[in-house]
Amino acid sequence: MSLKFSKKELIFPIAVFAVFITIVFLLWNKSLKTQKSTFIREIQTTGSLRAKEFFSLVKYDVKSLENLKQRIEMTNGSYFQYWEKDAHLILEQNPSFKFVEWLDTLMTVKMITPLEANRTAVGLDLSKHPRYPEWRNHVRDSSTNISPWTKLHQGGNAFLVDAPVYFEGKFRGSVTAGMDFTTPFNELVADLDKYAIEVIDERGTIFYSKNNPNTSGIGKEFIFTTSFVVDTLDGQKWTFSLMPSHLDFLAERKEATYVYLIFGLLLSFLTSLLVYFYQSSRGKNKYLGHANIKLKVLNKSLKKEQVRAEKSSKAKTEFISNMSHEIRTPLNAIIGFIEVLKLSEIHSSLKEYLSLMDISSKKLLLLVNDILEIDKIESGKTTFRKDIFSPLHELKNIIRIYQRTAEEKGLNISLDSTVNSDLEAVGDIGKYGQIITNILRNSLKFTEKGGITVSYDENIVNNELAIDIAIKDTGIGIPKNKLKTIFDRFTQVDIGKAKRHEGSGLGLYITYKLVDLLGGKIGVTSQENVGTEFHLSLKFPLSETKSKTSTTNSESIDLSGCKVLIVDDNRVNVMVLKKTLEKLGVQSESVSDGLEALNTVQNNCYDLVFMDIHMPKMDGLSATREIRKFNKDIGIIGLSADVTKEAIDEAKGVGMNEYFTKPISFDKLRKHLPNYLVKIS
C-alpha cells in the first residue's frame, strides 16, 4: 500500500518538474538572444563614445593650431618673434603634431619647427603640389584646410592642416602643421583590448587601426560605423569603425548562460522535491490552521502597536541618524571586500566591475556621511577640533587630490595665489577641508570643458588669520531663479528625469552650515553657460606653535610577525579585517564577545586589539575596562559604526587608545598601525 501511495504522490511533482524544465529552456534560449542584443548595444554605445573622443581630440588639436594663427592676427604679425617658442610648446603639449611651419602667400615653406628633422622642406615651393588648389580655396574662404593622408617631402606621412592668416586687410600666409594622430588615439583606447578599431579618410586610406580589425568574418550588426566631417568646404569625411577584436567574442558570454541553465535545472529539481515534501506534509494542515489563527491574533496586536508607533513623536533627524548608523555596518563589509579584491590578482574582465562597485560604494558612504553631518548640525551636536595647520598647504593638498579627476575629464585646476608665507592657524582641519572639497567637487561635477581656478589670499587681522578663497569654474552655471536657493537642502541645478548630473543636493547645504558655524561667509555669483564662482571668507586664530609632522613612512615599515586580536561578533567584519591585515603582513586571531577577549588577552601575547563596541555577553567598553585592570600597555582600538562625539569620548574614557569608525579603509590601517605595532628601542 505504501509503495502505491508514493507513486501517486510523485505524479504531481513530476508534472511540476516537466513544466519548470520547459520554462528554463525557453528562458535559456531567450537569454542567448538577449546576450547577443546586449553585446550589440555595448558595441554601439562604446563606439559612439570612443568616436566622440577621437573626433573631439582632432578638433582640439586643430584648435591649438588656430589659436596660434589668432595670436598672429591679433598682434598684426608682431607675435612672429615668439614663433619658435610657441611652436615648440604646441609640439610638447600635442603628441599628434609632427611639425609646425609657415607658408607664405605663394605657398613656399619659410619656417619650420623642429628644423633639424625637416630641414629639407625649408624653401620648398608647393605651388605645383596637387593640394595647391585646395589650399587656395581655403585661403579665399578664410577657413582651415585639412588635407587627405599625404606623403611628406621629408619622409613619412601626415595630415597637413593649414590655417590662413590675415591682418591689416591682407592675406599674409598660413600656419601649417603636419599631424599624425596615432599616439593620442592609442592613449584613448589603451583599455579596449576586446575591440578592434580603424579610422579611414575620405580616399579610403586607413590611417589608424588597433587590434587588426577584420570586417569580413564579423556580422554587420556587430560593427559600429560613423562619419565625421573634418573639412566642410571640401566635404572631407573620416569614417570611424569599432568591432570585436576576435571572432569568438560571444563565447565567454555563452559560458555564463550555461551556468544559468544548470542553475535553472537544479532549481527545477529542488522545487519538485519541495512540492513532494509539501504533499507529504498535508497531515499537518490542522496544525498549520491553528498556527494561522495565532498569526491573525498576532497581526491584530501588531496593528495596534503600529498605530501606537505612528502616534509617537520621534524627531526626523534622530531617525535619519539611526538609519545611517545601520547602513554603515554592512557598508563596512562591502567597502572592505572591495579593497581586499583591489589588492588581489583578479581577471582583467572583472576590474571594470570592481572599479564601478568601488565608486558606487564610496558614493553611498559619502551620502551617509552627509546625512550624519546634517543630523549633527541640525541637532546642535557639531563639535570642532583645535588642529594646528596651514590653510594654504591644506588647500594645495586638496587641489592635488582632485587634479587627476579633473584631467580625466579634460579639465585643469590651477591655484592663483601670491601668498608665500608659512603661517599656521588653530582650527578644525577636517571641517575646513570638507568645505573646500564640497565646493571643488560641485565645480568638477558641473564643468565639462575649460577648468577651475582657485584664488587664495590671507591677511593677519587682530591676531587672526583671515583667508579669502574664490573657486571659479567654466561650467553650466546657475539660473538666476536658483541662486537664492542653491544652499538649501536637496537643491540641484538640473532636476527632473532628464538631469545629467548625479547628487543628493546636500553638499552645498552642509558647506553653508559649516561656514556659518565657523563664523565665516560664503557667496556665489554665476552666469548660465559661462560659469560659477564661489567666494569664501574664514578667520582662524593664529597658532603660536608649529604643527608636528610625522616622519614615519608607513609603507616602508615591515609589520610581519606582529600579532593582533580581533574582537567582533560579526563574521563578515572579522573576515574583511583579517584579509586586510594579511595584506599588511599582520597575523590575526578573532573572538566573538568581550568575555572571550578577556580570557584570550590574559593567556596570550598580542601587540594590538581591535575591539567592537556592540557585542553579546559583554560589550567592548566593559571588556576594555576589565583588560585595563591587568594590562595597561596593550594597544586597544575601538570599532563601531557610531560616529557621534559622545561614543568616541566614552570609548577613550574607558581606556581605548584610538576609535575607528566603520568602514575602515586599507590606507587608514596602513597609516595608523605602525603607531602601535612598531616597537621603538
From TrEMBL:
<dbReference type="InterPro" id="IPR003594">
    <property type="entry name" value="HATPase_dom"/>
</dbReference>
<dbReference type="InterPro" id="IPR050956">
    <property type="entry name" value="2C_system_His_kinase"/>
</dbReference>
<dbReference type="InterPro" id="IPR003661">
    <property type="entry name" value="HisK_dim/P_dom"/>
</dbReference>
<protein>
    <recommendedName>
        <fullName>histidine kinase</fullName>
        <ecNumber>2.7.13.3</ecNumber>
    </recommendedName>
</protein>
<keyword id="KW-0812">Transmembrane</keyword>
<dbReference type="InterPro" id="IPR011006">
    <property type="entry name" value="CheY-like_superfamily"/>
</dbReference>
<dbReference type="InterPro" id="IPR036890">
    <property type="entry name" value="HATPase_C_sf"/>
</dbReference>
<feature type="domain" description="Histidine kinase">
    <location>
        <begin position="322"/>
        <end position="542"/>
    </location>
</feature>
<dbReference type="Pfam" id="PF02518">
    <property type="entry name" value="HATPase_c"/>
</dbReference>
<feature type="domain" description="Response regulatory">
    <location>
        <begin position="563"/>
        <end position="677"/>
    </location>
</feature>
<dbReference type="InterPro" id="IPR006189">
    <property type="entry name" value="CHASE_dom"/>
</dbReference>
<feature type="modified residue" description="4-aspartylphosphate">
    <location>
        <position position="612"/>
    </location>
</feature>
<feature type="transmembrane region" description="Helical">
    <location>
        <begin position="10"/>
        <end position="28"/>
    </location>
</feature>
<keyword id="KW-0472">Membrane</keyword>
<dbReference type="InterPro" id="IPR004358">
    <property type="entry name" value="Sig_transdc_His_kin-like_C"/>
</dbReference>
<dbReference type="Pfam" id="PF00072">
    <property type="entry name" value="Response_reg"/>
</dbReference>
<keyword id="KW-1133">Transmembrane helix</keyword>
<dbReference type="Pfam" id="PF00512">
    <property type="entry name" value="HisKA"/>
</dbReference>
<dbReference type="InterPro" id="IPR001789">
    <property type="entry name" value="Sig_transdc_resp-reg_receiver"/>
</dbReference>
<dbReference type="GO" id="GO:0000155">
    <property type="term" value="F:phosphorelay sensor kinase activity"/>
</dbReference>
<feature type="transmembrane region" description="Helical">
    <location>
        <begin position="258"/>
        <end position="278"/>
    </location>
</feature>
<dbReference type="InterPro" id="IPR036097">
    <property type="entry name" value="HisK_dim/P_sf"/>
</dbReference>
<dbReference type="InterPro" id="IPR005467">
    <property type="entry name" value="His_kinase_dom"/>
</dbReference>
<keyword id="KW-0597">Phosphoprotein</keyword>
